[in-house]
Amino acid sequence: MTANTVDFDASPNNLEPFWMPFTANRQFKKAPRLLVSAKDMHYQSHDGRTILDGTAGLWCVNAGHARKEIAEAVGAQLTKLDYAPAFQMGHPAAFQLSNTLTQMLPEFDHVFFANSGSEAVDTALKISLAYQRAIGQGARTRLLGRERGYHGVGFGGISVGGIVSNRKVFGPMLAGVDHLPHTHDLKRNAFVRGLPEHGAELADQLERIVALHDASTIAAVIVEPVAGSTGVLLPPKGYLQKLRAICDKYGILLIFDEVITGFGRLGASFATEYFGVVPDMITCAKGLTNGVIPMGAVFVRKGIYDAFMNAPENTIELFHGYTYSGNPAACAASLAVLDIYKRESLFERAAELAPYWEDAVHSLKGTKHVIDLRNLGLIGAIELEPREGKPTARAFEAFLGCYEKGVLIRTTGDIIALSPPLIVQKTHIDQIFDTIGKVLKAIN
Ligand code: PMP
């Protein structure tokens, strides 16, 4: 075994012990794709390819790869204070980061740290239940999600999530969960640029669920403002505003899962800013550390933390937390990347590039197999006509074809999803869409 991954022997035996997540392991290990280094917009693969990163890793490397400032900050933190107990003890970086984060979103006055998007989601769901109880609404135990929602892989997240393959073999899930319909409507909204015109009325389905269960039993609704992992499903104009209004009417907490939309993806700090809709909690991860150290967080709106602090003081206020909540190295990485976002105005940069990105996405109209194109900020999707009777979706073939040609894209079912680092240049955008166009033409 060698510590130098560039020299790694990628023969099948060496690849076998790693049970890869969300991966067709048997296929992959016959024809592996290993990334051995990265810089700015590009990866290098073990077989010598230079690959343009069209997906910011997994929607997370917003400031581009191998940023020296982050490495130096993490290195300095590790040699100064490598770890501090997370319970009944503190360290400066966690407080500093909480201050910096809450300054980004003034309506939110506290932050709870986790280690991933999944943990942030489960944390937010648990805070919802505990908060309702703290304000004397302990019968509010139901949690609502949405069809085609992705909220990570914890039992809370898959319960409120709406992806059948992530749920079907894992038993009955959390009790007391219901789902709103998704908002994806190819018949009415195909090829629309930006937000769909049709579908805001789908938020009224929350009224139906309230009528069925009674508001007094419902703690919270969680939605991704833009559903990313199931193929970039955009909220119809007015939908999120309506959802907010109905939640307000019935005392239901609204959680935005901004694991993807947080930290500049839409050309604003968060989707809450982009849409002008303020939820009660925001979950985030990914861009929080530029993906380099696992970290998630939950922002809570003013009043939520206070409800816990105003309860009779007898013991710990919230029985929840992780060994690595506010981990020093993760905090240092986050502080460094937040500084880069600000110094390089990367969120504004994303907003400036968005019209060019939109034109590039929609330049694929008329390309073979393409049945929809979607864009917002620096996020995009290409939906392909489903292929009947063949095991491999066209989108996955496109992924393999683009990889061969040096562009990393992401696929889910029949949809290609794109989300480049926010440092992307126009020439990179051109390369991404030229490559996809050529690859699609060659697919049957
Ligand atoms: N929520 C959303 C909206 C996500 O997109 C993701 C990850 N793609 C998660 C939660 C889960 O994050 P993680 O993989 O860090 O657990």
Automatic annotation (TrEMBL):
<dbReference type="GO" id="GO:0004015">
    <property type="term" value="F:adenosylmethionine-8-amino-7-oxononanoate transaminase activity"/>
</dbReference>
<keyword id="KW-0663">Pyridoxal phosphate</keyword>
<protein>
    <submittedName>
        <fullName>Aspartate aminotransferase family protein</fullName>
    </submittedName>
</protein>
<dbReference type="Pfam" id="PF00202">
    <property type="entry name" value="Aminotran_3"/>
</dbReference>
<comment type="similarity">
    <text>Belongs to the class-III pyridoxal-phosphate-dependent aminotransferase family.</text>
</comment>
<dbReference type="GO" id="GO:0009102">
    <property type="term" value="P:biotin biosynthetic process"/>
</dbReference>
<dbReference type="InterPro" id="IPR015422">
    <property type="entry name" value="PyrdxlP-dep_Trfase_small"/>
</dbReference>
<dbReference type="InterPro" id="IPR015421">
    <property type="entry name" value="PyrdxlP-dep_Trfase_major"/>
</dbReference>
<keyword id="KW-0808">Transferase</keyword>
<dbReference type="InterPro" id="IPR015424">
    <property type="entry name" value="PyrdxlP-dep_Trfase"/>
</dbReference>
<dbReference type="InterPro" id="IPR005814">
    <property type="entry name" value="Aminotrans_3"/>
</dbReference>
<keyword id="KW-0032">Aminotransferase</keyword>
<dbReference type="InterPro" id="IPR049704">
    <property type="entry name" value="Aminotrans_3_PPA_site"/>
</dbReference>
<dbReference type="GO" id="GO:0030170">
    <property type="term" value="F:pyridoxal phosphate binding"/>
</dbReference>
